[in-house]
Amino acid sequence: MKKIVAAAFLALAGFAANAQSGGDNSGCTGCTALTYDACQTHVTVSLANTLNMNCTSCSDMQACANSISEWANGISLGTAQFSVQSTKPFSVYGGLASGTMAKSGGGTGLTIGSGSGNIQINAKVSGNMGGTYQSTYNTAPTALAVRTNNATPYTAANSGSKLIAAAPANVGPAVSTSVALSTGPIPVSAANGDYSVDVIFAAIQD
After folding, report:
1. 90-96 vs 145-146, strand pairing mode
2. 20 to 30 A from 128, CA-CA: which of 52, 143, 165, 193?
3. How far is residue 149's CA from residue 99's CA, in Å, rounded to a whole number?
């Protein structure tokens, strides 16, 4: 028993002496620093063209024809104002929701159109929206056509008369445009009373 203990002691003492004297470390290369890392994600951007039309002044209009000149030449109804922002060039149309101006309280309405016995609703455009204005302050007004379909989506084919053609795309500050509405001569066969029809302005991307 004493011999075993002594042998173990000598072995440990020899290991300690070897460690203190410094061994051969030529096989140790040290640690490599990890100075970066990364992760990855896949990004998809889905683009959809869009258009926004804002009516800044589209209140109901009413005017009274109570002079010979107004019956003979027509009357000014008022001005609508709107702005458009669009990711593509666009055109603006003005159309009538019906081919008849309905008489308040019932009775015979006024047929909209050219020719004797009919009445026209006319439009002139002013502003800085760009594009080509069909009628402006120094040209003859555009007679608004009746819309062929009042359901959405609005299209160039069903939206009445083109008022502005090929206005440029604009996603910056909105630029307003005004449309002055008036009537043509009023048929003398029309009875006293109030007559009305809806006018719909539509901006449609080209």
Report:
1. parallel
2. 143
3. 12
User: Above 70 in pLDDT, residue 72?
Assistant: yes
- Cα 186 to its chain centre, rounded Å, is 37
- Both structure tokens of 136: 């402006």
Whole-model pTM?
0.80
CATH number of 51-205: 2.60.40
pLDDT (tens digit per residue) in 112-129: 999 889 999 999 999 989
Which structure tokens are listed for 89? 């060039």
Residue 78 confidence (pLDDT) above 80: yes
Beta bridge partners of 167: 90
Give residue limits of the domains in the chain. Answer: 51-205
